[in-house]
What we know:
Low-confidence stretches: none
Helix content: 40-55%
Number of domains: 3
Number of helices: 12
Amino acid sequence: MSLGPIMIDVAGDVLSPEDIELLKHPLVGGVILFTRNYSSMEQLQNLIDNIHAIRTPRLLVAVDHEGGRVQRFREGFTLIPAAAHFGEIYDHNQPRGRRLAHLAGWLMAIELRAIDVDFSFAPVLDVDHGISQVIGDRAFHKEPSIVVELAHAYIEGMHEAGMSATGKHFPGHGGVEADSHLAIPVDEREYNDIYAHDILTFKRMIHHGLAAVMPAHVIYPKVDEHPAGFSSFWLKEVLRKRLGFQGVIFSDDLDMKGASVAGESYSERARAALSAGCDMGLVCNNREAAIEVLENLGEHDDPVAHLRLARMHGRNKIDQKQLYASNKWKEAVTLMQRYQDDPTLEFDF
């Protein structure tokens, strides 16, 4: 059975009979985990093992674990600073900023790989325009060129740990104030302005081997009437054709307010996202919506998407005991904690 085009969530910290039934559905290809799915390290490992045991090829297991305010697992995991922290350090010491970003990417990814999470939806490639409610300190910097440098370092760290990176939110969410979870953001800029500032980070990261992209639920009316995640122009013409991106395109959550313009029903939204060019649609925190999509989306068979999705499986899993015993992990955790306690201190690497 191939990986299906829909990613859903599960209800709690163990799989219920309904969870298992839904995960066996041929349209499902992955699971996204949330804080409610975690009560202990042993429990989380068992949950992920049980999810992976359901299907062959095994379902993708993902999580939003960027650092800062978007880090789903905390107890037992190293707290990763918000991306803007590395931008602030970079402004004073460029090599140290890049090194810390690389270390954060590796530490985030290696701790997740140790429990067999395939990937985190990270990093944020949005440029901080100083107005976005939902992006804010999740962005590395206000200068696109610096976002590129720090994101490249962060992604190299992820790759070193055996995890593929997902850049979000294409073509850029930082230029609007509204939060697409709660509203339908509209960015009135011209295409050339967006391209020159926000798309630059995605273009450069694609050249550096970015494996996946998540588009924004933002409308850019001077470019296209549809939000980027439902726009063939943004996904097929710009992302695929002009930028040459060959990796996975994940929709953002189809239950968000910003996705509501794509259809009243969730299956309409999923169909619109896949038709526009997404390889996988996310339906999160709404079990009724997930069931409605699986029952009404219809058959969907895209061999190219199957290959792309299969490449998102994690690599080089490390045993937890082996990780915790390694000097590299111990030094990384200590350094990250000391920098969070006092970012002004000077430390050698």
